[in-house]
Amino acid sequence: MRNPTGNTPLLPGSLKNLFFPPEKDEYTYFARAQDRPFATADPVVKAAWAADASMLAYARHGATAMPAADFQANLARGGLRGLNQIGDWSAHGTQAYFAANDQFAILAFRGTEADDPVDVIDDGDLVLVPELDRRPDGRAPQLSLGIPALVHQGFQRALDRVWDDVRSCVTDYRRCHPQAEICFTGHSLGAALAVLASSRFAEGNISVFTYGCPRVGDQKFCDRVLADPRKQTFRFVNLNDSVAHVPPESALYRHAPQNCLRFDENGNLAHDDGSFRGDVAALATVFSRFRVDLSLDLAKIPARPGLVDHSAARYCIRLWNLV
User: May I ask the CATH architecture of the domain 15-322?
Assistant: First the structure.
């Protein structure tokens, strides 16, 4: 178990803080980058960095779009440069960014946005389909010739929209930095895309940090994701985060990895002891979030238990409190 050493309070458990990142004056991204550098850090420090990168992928101050200058300034605070925006950031659908320095790179996928109907459709398309296997040259993947691993159709479609850009960013960086770590990360839908994207690259020195990740595929997919010892995958769950319950665990859907690193109500972090259960009961709560009227003052409406634990800011604050 790892116990908090910091005492930064969580933001209020409102729908606003569930659906949107903090306002500009409520949170500072990579505030401790200088005294807790990524390149030489342990996994918990790296997880705090990756959580900030995941929340930054939403590119918002609250519900308002974050100005490009603010986005660049946040990355610069973490010593990151060479920003590549992935996807159309002025439209609905998959978005991500790739930022790097000479020591490491971060590929962060944006999670579900409550006002993006494309995200909602992708999340809800639970049909399992054969995973697209990676080619040795890293080009667009093709279907496996053997019995394929099965993955969530909506997540795979969301990644395929931006796959060419993802591939280019990773392979171009790796060509010039063969030994540098590349961190794949995301929150919610972004976490699922990070797992899928990382699985398509065969090289080592890749890390994956996910927050509130839904299940992505079947046991064969999970086994393959975790089979390469040169890759490290860390799955974080905050208390009773409902999104980590879906799709329900079965012979069809499994988590990768199965055991998570889970926060308790006091912010202590430990390997899950098996108590994180209750998929079926969580489903109604999860999908009810899409029926909220976004024209209301969401800051005054409390989020339900389980859903409030999915807040991206709660992952960031809890992790930085540990380091």
Answer: 3-Layer(aba) Sandwich (3.40)
